[in-house]
Amino acid sequence: MSARIRRSWLVVPLSKAEQIAQAPRSGADVIALDLVEFVAEDDKPAARARAQAAIHAAHAGGAEVFAQVDPELLVADLHACAWPGLTGVIVSRLESVQQVAEVDELLAELEARRGILHGTLEIVAALETARGNHAAYDIARRSPRIRGLTLGRTDLIMDLRPEPSGEIHLMPYLMQRLVAVARALGVTPIGAWWRAPARGLLAPPDDTYHAARRGRAIGFAGSLCIDVNQVEPLNQGFTPDAAEAAAAQQLVTAYHAGVARGVAVVEQGDRLVDRGSATQALALLDLAAACAARDREKAEMAARPLLALP
Amino acid sequence: MAILVRRSNLLAPITATERVSQAWQSDADAITLDLEDGVVETRKAEARGLVKEAIDLAGRGGAEVFVRVNATLLHADLEASVWPGLRGIMLPRVASAAEVAEAVEQMTALERRRGLAAGALELIVLLESARGVWDIRSIITSSPRITQVGLDESDLACDLGITPLPEHDPYVYARGRLVIETTAANAQPIGITYPLGVHPRRSSAAEIHRMATDARNLGLKGVVCPDPSWVAPVNAAFTPTADLVAYNKRVREVFAGAVAAGTAAVPLDGRMIDVPVDEWAKVVLAMAAACDARDVQKRAARAIA
Amino acid sequence: MAAHQVRRSGLTMPVVTRRFVDHAWRRGCDFINLDLEDSVPQHLKAHARGLIKDAIPVVRKGGAEAFTRINHDYVHADLDAIVWPGLSKVNYPKAETADEIRLLDAVITRLERERGIRPGTVEIGANIETAKGVAAAYDIASASPRVKEFGGGTGYDMSRDLGVEMFVGFEQFAYGKGELELAARALGLEVRAAPFVANTTGSVSDADRAFREAQAGRRCGFRLGGGLNPAVVEAQNRGFTPTAEEADDAQWVLERHRELAGTGETWIAIDGRVIDRYEAARARDTLEWAALCAERDREKAEAVLRTRVAMAEPAP
């Protein structure tokens, strides 16, 4: 798996100076500077003015930096955020192929003007409406910049509510559909399997860990969150733990031993282990290694002094 | 339209000679000689040489005989497999209609060369990628040879980036799409309930029966069995019981009486029998008759084997 | 999402059963669905067609809307018999293609014009009951502006098409339900859906169960009901209507949300409960729905009173 490790995406409102200052210490793999969900309309101009410095500061802890932008305010939001140091943008409530084309064009323009290597600014499409989800496949393949798909705060925007079982109505279907579409196009599905009482990406740490682990069980690689206390649980939930890695290693060893004997299906207890199981186990070990590398990288970057803004 | 009865399809790795020679005794409706995941890389060439004889061996008890080919060794495997006595090919890792077309082209040529009726060979298609699941409609409507479609859940796990947990089924969407699109295309969706597809194992007959029954109630029509111990419980789960047949015969009688008397609904044992209930009775009785016919066929074949 | 009509409860009944039709107005339903399809025996279908025109005003006496369920295979004969003033909706079973819906639309349009019905009055209920229908869901739902509600994907006919038993205690139709609901939402149609509740009895007359299901549905934001047995009508009316407590709570939420304006905050937590624009939108929706329900109930009560007076019946 060559995709970057992005287990935790901490949403930080650009209207909150203190949260911006705290973000580098959060341990998040990604800091998502928000101009949409948590910034009051009147505060947007001031928030945009803060973006460039915030991007620089967010790097200090080793996080990648995205900016969450509004598809109806693209010109202002993208101008404010497309600076060296930004990895990409999350486009909230993305609904149409035309919107993707618009974002793509604006990003290309800004890359050229601001000395950013052409084509490197990524897009994560937040499909938070019924129309956006319905058009997911066409949206996701409209631009090679799209590297991720997420449901974002679909539960709130589509007004999907908890069922008696604790599942949020329609979310299990929407999640698995998103994973299928994303993987069909080779892009990363971002999200977690939230259950009541989680609401709009906000949940207590324990619930967050379980949402992440369940999310990994259906194909998600990382999730957005609102509170700094959710970061570690997300990192843990999306990282294979020691027990999983040990079991995977055992399985791979048993399989290879079988193959050496000329046997393609090996019995592990009552389980029938074949090439498919071995491939899954190897993928898990690769993921564990990549997570460990990302954690080391973050630790190293956190230890470096903050570079001055050019 | 005749009902296809292929409740159990037993996989037998072609290099496991004892498994192959004993397969016909399992009472499976179909036997798939496996050249793919059941055979190590270093023996795949050797495996091809075993197919022709194995087809006859496996077909002795009246089972339909298939061969699962390697997607990456398609031409050589098909060349080695198309012989009289073969029912069809199990084609894994299909992600596009073009891949089906490629296999069909060669199968058609081989049918001609080897004296099989044109178009006789069926295809069982296995999807193991998100791409295959998304594009399922164009794939399965691309050839009338396709009679069954399933998911290879193990490979699909890798493609979907899943680390499966036994308590959370990650294939609800994919399996649901399989059932709907395959049924809509007038073919049969096959598979078993989670997690026996992604983590196949030996288990008690009761558990296999239970999971096969749940699979049936999800709309699946048959199960690819990785182990002979699965066959009997799978066959049973997909066959209406004698009690069920008797009840549904009574339903049909009672409802016919109601119609003759001019009403559209009549009570029977505390239940209202109306058009939908009678329609379902027809389905059950037709399935029972078809299963019975198939079982008779197999018994006759075994008697002279 | 704004509701276009109040349809919490309704009964599907064979139009050939005189006493059902005559007493329908007393049931308290929001709609009555006169059936020409599965509850009418084949040899009575021609006779049934002739009954619809007069039955429409009879079932509307209590204020209910009048719908009809037609036969998939007798579109022209059935529509000709049913599209009369007073009909609000045609329910079409086993819809499988957009073309079928377009045909219905064209025939209904002609009949509306010929018979003095305001254009666009008669809605089409496109009922998906087969795998082919699910596969064509979005095309079907978008084939005509007469389609205003959409959803489903379960039931006897779907079960038969897939070859599955019903009432097995687990969710058998997740994919189909999801596809239909996504199409409905993407097209801005009213959603016919419900939270999954395991049902192993298949009972159609359990009022307690009907209430719990309606309540669970309402709490998930759904509002469409209907059934076969009068025992569930009152339960559905009650279950799909916001309670006084819920209306009061909605007012409270709106007041708390108004207080956020000008503070620069987009949300606030009060006793662990988040108040933001989404909660405010839900609250507004609840109050609108409560008002619509109250108006509908008044409308029905007045219709019942008028009918009793006309029949010189004493009030109960």
Distance, first to last CA of chain C: 37 Å
* Poorly predicted spans of chain B: none
Distinct helical segment count of chain B: 12
CATH class of the largest domain in chain B equals: Alpha Beta
Order of helices and strands of chain C: EHEHEHEHEHHEHHEHHHEEH
Largest interface: A-B, 44 and 41 residues
Number of H- or I-type helical stretches of chain C: 12
Q: How much is the average pLDDT of chain C?
A: 95
The SSE order of chain B reads EHEHEHEHEHHEHHEHEHHEEH
Q: State mean pLDDT of chain B (0 to 100 scale).
A: 96
Oligomer: heterotrimer
Q: Which percent band covers the strand fraction of chain B?
A: 15-25%
* Computed CA radius of gyration of chain B, to the nearest angstrom: 20 Å
CATH fold name of the largest domain in chain C, please? TIM Barrel
User: What is the rounded Rg of chain C?
Assistant: 21 Å
Protein structure class of chain B: alpha/beta
Could you outline the blueprint of secondary structure elements for this entry?
The complex is a heterotrimer of chains A (310), B (305) and C (316).
Chain A: E1 8-13, H1 17-22, E2 30-34, H2 44-59, E3 64-69, H3 74-81, E4 88-91, H4 97-113, E5 122-126, H5 130-134, H6 136-140, E6 146-150, H7 154-157, H8 171-184, E7 188-190, H9 205-218, E8 223-225, H10 231-237, H11 242-260, E9 266-268, E10 271-273, H12 275-303
Parallel strand pairs in A: 1-2, 1-8, 2-3, 3-4, 4-5, 5-6, 6-7
Antiparallel strand pairs in A: 9-10
Helix pairs in contact in A: 2-3, 3-4, 9-10, 11-12
Chain B: E1 8-13, H1 17-22, E2 30-34, H2 44-58, E3 64-68, H3 74-81, E4 88-91, H4 97-113, E5 122-127, H5 130-134, H6 136-140, E6 146-151, H7 153-160, H8 172-184, E7 188-190, H9 205-216, E8 223-225, H10 231-237, H11 242-260, E9 265-268, E10 271-274, H12 275-304
Parallel strand pairs in B: 1-2, 1-8, 2-3, 3-4, 4-5, 5-6, 6-7
Antiparallel strand pairs in B: 9-10
Helix pairs in contact in B: 2-3, 3-4, 9-10, 11-12
Chain C: E1 10-14, H1 18-23, E2 31-35, H2 45-59, E3 65-69, H3 75-82, E4 87-92, H4 98-115, E5 123-126, H5 131-135, H6 137-141, E6 149-151, H7 156-162, H8 174-186, E7 190-192, H9 207-219, H10 233-239, H11 244-260, E8 267-270, E9 273-276, H12 277-310
Parallel strand pairs in C: 1-2, 2-3, 3-4, 4-5, 6-7
Antiparallel strand pairs in C: 8-9
Helix pairs in contact in C: 2-3, 3-4, 9-10, 11-12
